[in-house]
Amino acid sequence: MKSVTFEDSLFEECYFEDITSSNTFFKNCTFISTVFYNTDLFEYKFINSRVVNSTFLHNKEGCQLDFSDDNNAYM
Predict the structure, then answer these.
(1) SV2A/B/C luminal domain location, by residue (predicted)?
(2) In a domain? residue 19
């Protein structure tokens, strides 16, 4: 995912795997029984969202560079 904003969405029993997202946010969303595996979806990307009975495993660490958007990078 590059630049996506999800608003007022429900994610139930979903599996997010190997996701690097430079500018993705979840606003007023609900996650129920969802697994996040090897992602960079950190707490600050979930704005006014609820995470219920969900698991974050093997989060990406270190400097994540994204050159897909006009050579912009984030660290």
Answers:
(1) 1-56
(2) yes
Question: 36 and 55 in contact (C-beta within 8 Å)?
Answer: yes
pTM for the full predicted model: 0.78
The answer to the question of residue 2 being in a domain is no
Structure tokens at 17: 């795997």
**Residues 33, 44, 20, 30, CA torsion sign:** positive
- Residue 43 sits at φ, ψ, to 5 deg, of -50, -40
- Split into its structural domains, the chain has a count of 1
Share of the chain residues as helix, strand and coil, in percent rounded to the nearest 5? 5, 40, 55
Q: What is the CATH number of the domain that holds 68?
A: 2.160.20.80
How confident is the model over 40-74, as pLDDT tens digits? 999 999 999 999 999 999 999 866 555 555 555 55
